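Minutes, project check-in
Item: structure for the 1006-residue chain
Input as provided by the requester:
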Amino acid sequence: MKQHASTLAMSYIAKATSNALRAKKTAFTGVVMAAALASAPAFANLTGSIKGKVSSPEAQQSLAGITVTAKSNVMPKPRTVVTREDGSYDLPQLKPGTYELTFTDKNGVTQTMTVDVLLEQASSLNVTMGGANENVEVITVTGSKLFRQGKSALTNSLGEEAINSVPVGQDYRDLLKLVPGVELSENATLGPSAGGSGVDNSYGFDGVDVSLPMFGNLASEPSTHDVAYVTMDRGGAKAVGFNRSGGFSINTVSKSGTDEFHGNVEYKVQPKSLVATPTGQESYELDKSWLTASLGGPLIEDTLYFYTSYYRPEETRTNKDTAYGEVKDYKNVRDEYFGKLTWAPTDDILINISQRTSEKTIEGRSVGAYETDSVSAGDAADQDIFTLDGSWLLGDATTLSFQYSKLEIESGTTPDTKLSVVPSLTGQLDLSNLTEMGYFSVPSLLDADDNYTAEQIAAYNAGAAPLIAQYGYTEDGQMRGGGGVGAYYQYDNIDFYRDSFELNLEHEFSWGDSYHTLHLGGEWKESKEVLSRLSNGWGRISYVGGLDESLEEGSSAPVIYRARVQQMSLVAGGEAVSAINSEMETLNFEINDTIEVGDWTYNVGVLVSRDTWYGQGLKSASGTLSGYELAPGEKYEMYQTDWSDMIQPRLGVNWNYADQDSVFANFSMYNPEASSLARAASWDRNTRAEIEVEFDEAGNVIYAEPRQGSSGKVFADDLTPRQIKEFTLGTTKYVGSDLVLRAHVRHRKASHFWEDMPNNARLTDYSGVDADGVPQHIADKGLYVDNLDEIRDEIGGSSYVIAEVDGGETKYWEASIEAEYLGENSYINASYVWSHYYGNFDQDNTTATTDANTFIGSSNYGDGRGRYSWDYKYGTLSGDKPHKVKVYGYYTVPWDANIGAYFVFQSGKPWEAWDGSIYGYSSGTTRYSEPAGSRRSPSHWQLDLNYTQDFKFSGDMELQFRADIFNVFDRQTGYNNNPYVSSETFGEYRNYYSPRRVQLSFNFKF
């Protein structure tokens, strides 16, 4: 088996190199590579640096001109700088890794030591040079191996050893559990709350923004096996790196080749027998496994390195038989290929180019207990991440850099049974073969208790009986209706694309008694969504049996069958309706100066941004009231922010009152980027509706009309973009070189939220309902858009408009204490955070489903009485976790083994009762009947453990056995309480934390 597994993995490695570096855009990639290699500079915030000062016991000895050379197995060529007059030096743009630094003075005296460089961090190394004319090996080090100086005041960074030694998990999303002060979230889609909405976090993989365009959630699926370093910024950002996050920002860098050949083959398994029974289920049914293989090394010694990997996670489940019989089994498989080249043509130039390709397929999904096997659907998702990064040092003081990256996500749901019939309003429904027409809902017989006349019931049942006999299922020896036959009703294709390019310049210089690090940067980013929905055959078909009359004006024809068909499937005039294209363009410019004066460091910077949304379905037209005319399928500029409205200052001060011990204060402003308005307000949403088609008893079309849905929306004038102001005050204390303590207080206030609102929302009539109504100072403002009726007469559109939420705000307070210890064979990170997150705009609680990709700027919030900012919305928000304790780390024992642990305690999830009746509605969705967050689910704690044992063989070969146990004590705490007052299960938990589960792995390294 071992030999077979290794051979299989090696073949996958070969395929990984070929597939990952070929890219689907071969010609385009070739052009980009050629341009990059010709122009040389490239950068993607994927590096770190070393800073320090050389001193001498001899007062008169000059400290200028001492050569500092940094070597590492991750850098094809060493980097060399010389010290300044005061003995200080900087080594920028270093790949994260372990470096050997050699200091050589003018007399040829050398001293060496090693230092670790982490992602986006400046490591500190101060040395004292001896005056003897001979080489020495022992030096005096003043500083800490835990020194942190990142792109924000609240930064944590971890290397590969810490990531691998702690029980984390396989997916990128699992890394989020390591961020101090951020809740442990079981969400599969929505990000965790960190002083803001879950859609306002920033996710980077190799410097590429992998958040889902339009929705802000984590989209990409790279696993942790390729992550070499991770950095986490929670607040106090500088104007470096274009950080507009309203939550936290996380970035990772992938592994690279080194100056030696290394590889591995790992197989990890989680059989269902090693998973505890989930609450509310009979047993756990999924078998999971993960195959990983990698290989890296030099292609050209000291010049060109390569790294490539293959990853295959797999989930299988034996699906239970339905009322109709056997069904296919569930299978979820992903093949991920990664290839990376690191090239250093000179000592001052470093270039990386990488391609990640992921192909996922899911079979046997979505078969209900009363459906046939043929109605199952499958999913497919292809993802590509291309990045080009590197650095070019222009002398000792200047760095010129740029980055290009491309993210592509092409996903969709596909029926496992594909039908050949093409719907047409001039066609006919084949009543003798409904299973070939679409998804047919088999009717059930009516009885006297149903609210119809005896004549209607008799007529309905006369037509339903033969349908049940033909398409029903057998129960207790009788044919019954109520099931589903045919095929899954729809093809759902959603593709996302993001291209970005950034250019950076950094220059260091002295000015009087101060030392400056000046950063200039510009970024262009374009995000795009392409949406198409097509029906499989006639889509969803139901038997009406004459209970409804035709919707056609003046018609009284009885409707016997009804189908719901996607309009994109209906060909009209020889042309099908095109897909919906939604785009957003972002421009960011930043300037930042870090000023060092004695023991004080000042950070002065500003980030200026402009966002432009592009919709579809209009074009500019002079002489019109709106400035547009209808043009289905055409791209138009929907809205553009002003530069002056998105000025985001970044100010900070740090006082090193003793060595590296400090007190710091920061003020930062952020304008979050995530928005769904490019699609949510697009005019062509009118023409992409679901069509309701009526049929007579012979299957002929009687009438068809679009079902009610959203349409294009006008923007109110002079909108101020969503804004977050942040204040941070903290202190850092270094206890030797092994332990650092940090405490801080932070406050965030968010305002100027945008939502789609009824134009007359401020004038809403509350008479006759048990609610207070619109506050007078808001009602006095009147309509959002005064001439909306005239605009709608001209180009149509919705009665809703995009406007600022009146009085909309959120506030966040945080007090934190954190300890980080790094010993020779151990690491511990421990934190406690008290926080309070409150306000009247809860982006994470705007739908019945609290874990989904939902529109940002066009949600249920503001949709009528009960959903406005004045309707019990002010209170504790759903992301509030007053108490959070996290402790994680590892210890390497003498017998070549590692023990890792992760512990978390956090408060429960706030919730409130929903009741539409007090507002005059039957639906209670997001209609609060008490202040937000009036209730709270129980607090949760869990402990994760792992044990890793190494067995070393000859040379560099070793076999590693590992066992991870997640949620050791099986704490399946309930949360996400049912808030609907009208429900029989009101207050009951709808979700539970995952049960105890054990993963076993075998890893062969060479």
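Outcome recorded: The chain is about 5% helix and 50% strand.
No further action items on this chain.
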